């Protein structure tokens, strides 16, 4: 029973990471936007939902005691707005400058969470965040299975929505902008308009994942949203395959399994005095796995692969016509 409860806990955490990776896949895999500020948008969602749903606290602002679902919707709204503002201000930049800017946004968010004690609780974080099925907390197995069911439903809804969007005219325009921006612009498509939309939707999904994580654990602190989180999510997307929503989910589960497994292994093999140093082996394990995946499958496990060109006048005209109609 303990093993089953841990498995439910593991899958819940992995699926929350899958949500973050799905948001990044929309931004990078579908649109080609190099976002290195993933941790910042996850933090925005977590803190927004926590402030909306926690009980009143005289030590800080917020604490409105609203339902959990309202907190999740509020997290998506605030995260989407923050991503849209970031996109409007930065998407004129080239990919390397965009990466630096989004990383700066994530650092600013983390520093605000650390220092704005009247709003975020500062280094002490925010506790007493309501947890779905909190009444089952005394029965870990039922509690973990219930949370797994909720997170699974949310992840499935987001996955199906993104699959539909990627095949819609909107998704075809994003792919066209990723592959050949000038050709898409020549067909009358606004590159900045579509990219801001994609960046905002991706940011909203990341914020939703942050809100789910906050309510799953019941406590958040600035140390949860360090750059290492962005590194983890990028590795998950690269391993699963950029451009594939299925790859985003499978890659997240696989990388999180190696991360958690290597952590458990070091705790067994090394003494408590050496475990702090041995923790770096988690990064080594992820790095080795990433190298192996890229050597064997350069596009990831489920990544987009270049299609063989079709010959003939009609085949050449078809892609342009589909984009023009979208």
From TrEMBL:
Renumbered residue ranges of the record's region Disordered: 307-326
Keyword Membrane: yes
Membrane-spanning intervals of the chain: 6-26, 33-52, 64-85, 97-116, 141-162, 193-212, 224-241, 248-270, 276-296
Pfam families for the chain: BPD_transp_2
Recorded topology in the membrane: Multi-pass membrane protein
Subcellular location as annotated: Cell membrane
Keyword entries, A-Z: Cell membrane, Membrane, Transmembrane, Transmembrane helix
Domain of life per record: Bacteria
Main location per the UniProt record: membrane
Compositionally biased intervals (Basic and acidic residues): 314-326
The keyword Transmembrane is assigned to this record: yes
PANTHER family per the UniProt record, alphabetical: HIGH-AFFINITY BRANCHED-CHAIN AMINO ACID TRANSPORT PROTEIN BRAE (PTHR30482:SF10), HIGH-AFFINITY BRANCHED-CHAIN AMINO ACID TRANSPORT SYSTEM PERMEASE (PTHR30482)
Annotated protein name in UniProt: Branched-chain amino acid transport system permease protein
